């Protein structure tokens, strides 16, 4: 079998693919098949386009001026300064995980790929390696793992492997662990706080251990979950009011990045004002500056799950259980557009018509707005 030659894509082609990914009407698997590129490459081009978009509006036209006289002493000092900065940045970059360092590679930069790889402390071969996209068999396993995770949220990779094996699905623990990471799920149980933040990300303390939530907009929670489709999958992020269980905003994305979480958060703040506390897990989508800066600017206290807060994870899982068993598993969405519309319709039903036993058979809308009216009248 002949080795596939390396392809150099034109900038216009990269922009076309990245724009299709940003539009978000097709899954990564569908875009990869349409444009004949790997899903990881599409994700990278999308990130590059979003990062460079501001430059389109930030450039300024400057009049030409005579070239300044070269000051060799200042030039040598600047070279020394840049050498120190380069050494510092190189050392810091090499402290990150391999996948994060690989993501720093810029194929469109003038610096050769080999030198970029050397500066980041990774092999050049790993830069060109693209793993295979998710197979149909893995998608089926992931769908069943998602169902088992909802039924047994305490099950780790070993138990999920055993449960799958008992159903006749031949899969090993390591592969189950890989799929769990791709889906963004993990076993829920009391355990030491061994989570490590992404490089440069701050982890905030858990603020809800002794907090009694007795009114709407006191505490909000936000989380991300995996939603299976007929072909591929998407991610759902939601902001939920802790007191009333009301979904205040949500977003569906084909990639698990911070952008769609920030959009959902900004919508909730614009529509409902600021809560006192917002609680999340320690995922990189929530620990990055793009997300936390929005909260800090709004004066919202940031709480992140840590040791002893496992029951609060279970609380968020109840929403995901309802969304999946009452909506996603019954529909097998064929397109991302269909998934977005159908999930939005279900969440409207969840808020306005679905009664909750924990709310004394009220709907989330009733629990949220009735309590706000009582507070306003007091």
From TrEMBL:
InterPro entries: HTH-like_dom, Integrase_cat-core, RNaseH-like_sf, RNaseH_sf, Transpos_IS3, Transposase_8, Transposase_IS3/IS150/IS904, Trp_repressor/repl_initiator. Residues 212-372 form the Integrase catalytic domain. The keyword Ribosomal protein does not apply. SUPFAM superfamilies: Ribonuclease H-like (SSF53098), TrpR-like (SSF48295). Pfam families: HTH_21, HTH_Tnp_1, rve. Keywords: Plasmid. Coiled coil: none annotated. This is IS3 family transposase.
